[in-house]
């Protein structure tokens, strides 16, 4: 059997390394909400992307919107998440989850499914992390009508802003092999645009939450 907890911890450790390692990042997109940068991934033959932005809400509110739980609000505001289900709760902080995504990029990218082990972690300074990486699970064989994509260690840090309880730095890392046969140019333009949209939609969701 797969060591789901160990794999989840490993993904969290990689997140910590990415967060602390400032070298080699190149900015590829900048909006009022997020700076997106990339560098080649050490995990697979693609890129590791970093999104960095400050959101107008408390870390708890941001976490409420992004936390990877069944019945969470992610499917409502994140246009990239069509469905999210927990396949197995490994512990109170680790679960194996399946995410399906709708077609994207003017339908050039067909619907995908991802099976990941996800870890949620809270730090003493109030920072929160969700980290994930691809796994296989006996209850989740590949679906014939969906392309199985693979997430390599990825996730989000919700970082409190000292002295500003209603501001949160959201630092996110994405490295995904979309699978299938996509031209590299499509993949390279998809991710930065996608990350910018993620921050924009999350900002809107947070404003609604406070309204």
Automatic annotation (TrEMBL):
Which superkingdom?
Eukaryota
* Domain START: start-end pairs: 1-211
Gene3D superfamilies per the record? Answer: 3.30.530.20
**Any coiled-coil regions, as ranges:** none
The protein's matches in InterPro entries, at most eight in alphabetical order, are given as:
StARD5/6 (IPR043556), START-like_dom_sf (IPR023393), START_lipid-bd_dom (IPR002913)
Protein keywords: Lipid transport, Lipid-binding, Transport
Q: Which GO terms describe its biological process?
A: cholesterol import
Q: Which PROSITE patterns match?
A: START (PS50848)
Pfam families this protein is in?
START
One example GO MF annotation: cholesterol transfer activity
PANTHER family from the UniProt entry: PROTEIN CBG07384, STAR-RELATED LIPID TRANSFER PROTEIN 5
The task this protein performs is described as:
May be involved in the intracellular transport of sterols or other lipids. May bind cholesterol or other sterols.
Report the protein name in the record.
STAR5 protein
Q: What is the lineage of its organism?
A: Eukaryota, Metazoa, Chordata, Craniata, Vertebrata
């Amino acid at each position: 059997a797969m060591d789901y907890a160990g794999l989840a911890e490993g993904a969290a450790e990689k997140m910590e390394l990415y967060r602390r390692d400032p070298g080699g990042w190149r900015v590829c997109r900048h909006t009022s909400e997020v700076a997106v940068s990339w560098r080649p991934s050490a995990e697979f033959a693609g890129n590791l992307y970093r999104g960095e932005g400050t959101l107008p809400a408390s870390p708890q509110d941001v976490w409420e919107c992004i936390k990877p739980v069944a019945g969470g609000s992610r499917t409502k505001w994140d246009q990239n998440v069509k469905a999210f289900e927990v396949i197995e709760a490994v512990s109170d902080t680790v679960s194996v989850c399946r995410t399906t995504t709708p077609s994207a990029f003017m339908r050039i990218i067909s619907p995908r499914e991802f099976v990941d082990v996800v870890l949620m972690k809270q730090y003493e300074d109030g920072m929160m992390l969700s980290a994930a990486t691809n796994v296989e699970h006996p209850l989740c064989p590949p679906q014939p009508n969906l392309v199985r994509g693979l997430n390599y260690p990825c996730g989000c840090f919700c970082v409190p802003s000292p002295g500003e309880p209603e501001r949160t730095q959201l630092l996110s890392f994405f490295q995904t092999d979309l699978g299938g046969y996509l031209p590299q140019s499509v993949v390279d333009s998809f991710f930065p645009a996608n990350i910018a949209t993620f921050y924009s939609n999350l900002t809107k969701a947070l404003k609604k939450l406070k309204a």
